[in-house]
Amino acid sequence: MAEKENMKITPENTEAEKPKKKKDGFFDSLVVAVVIALFIKTFLIQTYTIPSGSMLDTLLIGDYIIVNRLAYKFGDPERGDVMVFEYPLEPAKSFIKRVIGTPGDKISIRNKQLFINGEPYKEDYKQIKDDAYFPAELTSRDNIEEFTVPEGKYFMMGDNRDASYDGRFWGFISKDMIKGRALLIYWSLETPEYDSPWSKMPLRALRFLNPKYDRFDRVFKLIH
């Protein structure tokens, strides 16, 4: 009888085990959540912030975007796609531009008008702010003699043509440089005025708390 009493689970022992089980369960859930988040970020999507105006007005400075990393795993980029890729001259940096030329395309630019395969190409997304045209001898910004995009390469340009450092200046990218296709804007924050307290840390990091700087009309906007 005494032996059975020694084996009996007392209420005190039962209560002592509960916190440990809850703690272990929380830790396991946390580990699973972290693993899932890392998997999604590594293989499915990536987030970026737009730091410059080279893609105006498609993308604004302060847009927070989601990039689909799987977009080109089973297919090739198409003309018009907005992509994030490694900057060819400094692969550690990420650039975002639009696909203008695909392999085999014949590209030329005459006074800021893009020609593809000998035909003028309509670009509703293009922005031109400078009325001046510079000859090809001075810069490749406005005029480029016809060239053919090599096999396996892509020619990229920013939508804000007068203020984009793109393929006109550094050439082509290859498919293995592509990080993904820009999918949507999940948040957008206005840049505070230079003399505003919100332009200084720590308020700058917290400016999303001020509705003045939140561009709600851009939230969940698809990128085309």
TrEMBL record:
The record ties this protein, via CDD domains, to: S26_SPase_I
Presence of the UniProt keyword Membrane in the record: yes
Family matches, as Pfam families:
Peptidase_S26
GO CC annotation terms, alphabetical: membrane
Gene Ontology biological-process annotations? signal peptide processing
Bilayer-spanning residue ranges: 26-45
Q: What is a single molecular function from GO for this protein?
A: serine-type endopeptidase activity
Question: In this protein, which residues make up the domain named Peptidase S26?
Answer: 27-187
The places in or outside the cell where this protein is found are: Membrane
The protein's UniProt keywords, in alphabetical order, are: Hydrolase, Membrane, Protease, Transmembrane, Transmembrane helix
Q: Which PROSITE patterns match?
A: SPASE_I_2 (PS00760), SPASE_I_3 (PS00761)
EC class of the enzyme, as a word: hydrolase
User: According to its UniProt record, which protein family does this protein belong to?
Assistant: Belongs to the peptidase S26 family.
Q: Which NCBIfam families match?
A: sigpep_I_bact (TIGR02227)
What's the protein called, per UniProt? Signal peptidase I
- Please tell me the species this chain comes from: Geovibrio thiophilus
Give the gene name.
Answer: lepB
